[in-house]
Design goal:
alpha+beta; four-stranded antiparallel sheet; 20 strands; elongated
């Protein structure tokens, strides 16, 4: 899951309250109280009264040691951005050993395991992402200190993969068959510039076909339901010129000057736009670079920017302000030069996560709330940027839920996980899955 981001410090821009999703993850709580319809509570009550389900719920607890062993094993297999293949191969081997009808890897490197349903009239995806944010060469050895496990990526999202393996094993051991087909999926490219490439592939022509429901395991919190998609646009913008000696070539157009103008013009207008009434929108100049030495006019100057909103209209609006600012800055710097060629600018989109939302009354959201209530957690509806962004934007019922336990320092080398009633996360996933897939008679 995407880590919490910083906003340019401006006196006029105040931050809304941010609630942590068991680690540094942007997930804003829905301020409106939402009730659980009686019919959906009854669905969960009926499911939990089933003898096979009762057995499965206990087996999840009995398999805690195995779940933790799988967590350590998978965590210690590196899965850097765009290089998830080693972890994917092991996960495919492990899920095949647990028992499914078929396992394969798609063109994006996703691991897909099919457990056929009795009718197969619906297709449900239960998913966790295999990639981490850490570069190749990072030490991913798990360090155990008391009840706490430390390792890069152990919670985000290796815990989701381990939980999925346990859930599948429990369903098999309890002979719990579903009406719908269930696809257990380990995805690639959820983090950062991976830009959700794995889940995008699932919903493309190269995917497994029609998907009726999408349940993502990401994060560890019990009771949190991500039912709204925080969309984002990201760009790498590069101003380019001939460059030259700071004195001998004085008068050339300077890419740094243009970049500085672009940032200024965008921030000023974006600040006004962000403070308008309506759905929250944020903006950030995240990384800048360029230049070779103090006595040289740079030949390029670049920045990477991020903007977010759960409103596609607001996201498009602040994006348009960026485009205008860049063009204005380019024109002004070229008009100021005393000699040489004009600057050019390259605007490259490096991230496009769509916005959207599911109504709280949607059966999937209601089933999730009722399941969590049954397990003693208070349901919390939130918005965040996760793999669920893609199905939500396409009108497919989708949520992201935690996989159990407690964690912190996501995306840091000292990321940690504590198995504090971690079984609850797997139990909630099982109940939601069964409510959506139906129990075969």
């Amino acid at each position: 899951m995407e880590n919490f981001f910083k906003i340019i410090a401006l006196p006029a821009l105040s931050m809304l309250t941010v609630i942590s999703l068991s680690y540094n993850t942007f997930a804003q709580e829905d301020p409106k109280p939402v009730t659980i319809a009686k019919q959906h509570q009854q669905t969960i009550t009926k499911i939990t009264a089933n003898k096979k389900v009762k057995q499965a719920m206990q087996t999840i607890i009995d398999l805690e040691a195995e779940t933790m062993s799988n967590l350590v094993l998978l965590t210690e297999i590196p899965a850097p951005p765009y290089k998830e293949d080693k972890r994917a191969a092991k996960f495919a081997e492990m899920i095949k050993a647990v028992g499914v009808d078929s396992v394969w890897m798609d063109t994006a490197g996703n691991v897909i395991a099919l457990r056929k349903g009795q009718s197969g009239k619906k297709r449900i995806i239960l998913e966790a992402h295999m990639d981490t944010v850490f570069p190749e060469g990072t030490d991913v050895k798990v360090v155990n200190k008391g009840d706490t496990l430390y390792a890069p990526g152990i919670a985000d999202d290796t815990r989701g993969l381990a939980s999925m393996l346990t859930l599948l094993k429990v369903m098999n051991q309890s002979n719990l068959k579903t009406e719908a087909d269930v696809l257990f999926v380990g995805t690639t490219g959820e983090e950062g510039q991976g830009d959700l490439r794995g889940v995008k592939n699932l919903f493309s022509a190269a995917g497994p076909g029609k998907i009726d429901t999408y349940i993502a395991l990401d994060g560890t919190a019990i009771g949190v339901i991500i039912h709204r998609a925080l969309g984002s646009h990201r760009y790498r913008i590069t101003f380019k010129g001939p460059g030259g000696h700071s004195s001998g070539a004085f008068g050339l157009a300077n890419p740094h000057n243009a970049l500085g103008r672009a940032i200024h013009y965008w921030v000023v207008e974006a600040d006004k736009f962000a403070l308008q009434s309506g759905v929250r929108v944020t903006y950030n100049v995240a990384v800048t670079g360029g230049g070779t030495s103090v006595n040289s006019i740079p030949f390029e100057s670049w920045m990477e920017v991020d903007m977010r909103s759960e409103s596609q209209e607001r996201l498009s609006g602040i994006d348009q302000l960026l485009q205008v600012a860049v063009k204005k800055a380019l024109a002004e710097e070229n008009a100021m030069k005393k000699m040489g060629k004009d600057l050019i600018v390259e605007v490259k989109m490096i991230g496009d996560r769509p916005s959207g939302g599911n109504d709280p009354g949607l059966p999937l959201v209601q089933h999730a709330m009722a399941s969590m209530k049954y397990l003693g957690a208070e349901p919390q509806l939130r918005v965040a940027s996760t793999n669920s962004n893609i199905p939500i934007s396409k009108g497919v019922p989708a949520i992201t839920i935690g996989s159990g336990g407690k964690s912190g320092n996501a995306h840091a080398l000292n990321e940690w996980f504590v198995n504090d009633k971690g079984y609850l996360g797997i139990q909630q996933a099982l109940l939601i899955l069964l409510a959506e897939a139906g129990i075969a008679k």
